[in-house]
Amino acid sequence: MNPVVILSGAGLSAESGLGTFRDVDGLWTRFDLAEVATPEGFARDPALVHDFYNARRANMAQARPNAAHVALARLSKMPGVTLVTQNVDNLLERAGAQGVVHMHGQLSRALCHSCGARWDAPAVMDSEAPCPACRTTAIRPDVVWFGEIPYHMDRIEKALAQADLFVSIGTSGTVYPAAGFVDLARRGGARTLELNLVASGGAFDAVREGPATKVVPDWVAEMMAG
């Protein structure tokens, strides 16, 4: 298979019951993200931040991969496919996906804000719990907050420069740097495709609208057929 870069966003997991940020009932409307998704918010009230992510971790544990996750998991095993996600859930991995690039980190991982150690997060994190490496009480979820640099950007930009096809799935196209991936891919000569419930208005060569559980498996079937 020629090089393909796939970017997935919150719309991929919405049908599994994990809330998106920008829907009417999304996380933007129910929480002040400046308090729970920024380094400054964590510094002000780490217990509040842990409560928020403990709830999201519990929600993730109850969710199940949907047909779109399963289809992408199949495709991830093909040579030449780079699967990047903005999502911090583990539904792609639970569907069997390999080599998922989590540019915004993972709810299932913990990070020491002091020494940088990382480990598997427990179901419930506590602001008073010590880091297993340095014993300081500075542990946090290993997720990228607003104002922080996403992970693996060098790897992602290299893959985009080499891609023949870039596919964006279930993302609003408003948060950078991910919102700029379509332009990076186009500059490298890649074809671009958006699969989304509603078109984002980005500069894609083609758009397929519909629920992720419908449009993603259909597209993957076409790709796997050759």
From TrEMBL:
Record-linked CDD domains: SIRT5_Af1_CobB
Residues that, per the record, bind Zn(2+): 112, 115, 131, 134
Enzyme class: transferase
Subcellular location: Cytoplasm
Residues that hold substrate according to the record: 53, 56
Active site annotation, chain numbering: 104 (proton acceptor)
One GO term describing the cellular component: cytoplasm
Function: NAD-dependent lysine deacetylase and desuccinylase that specifically removes acetyl and succinyl groups on target proteins. Modulates the activities of several proteins which are inactive in their acylated form.
Name of the protein this chain belongs to: NAD-dependent protein deacylase
Organism: Jannaschia faecimaris
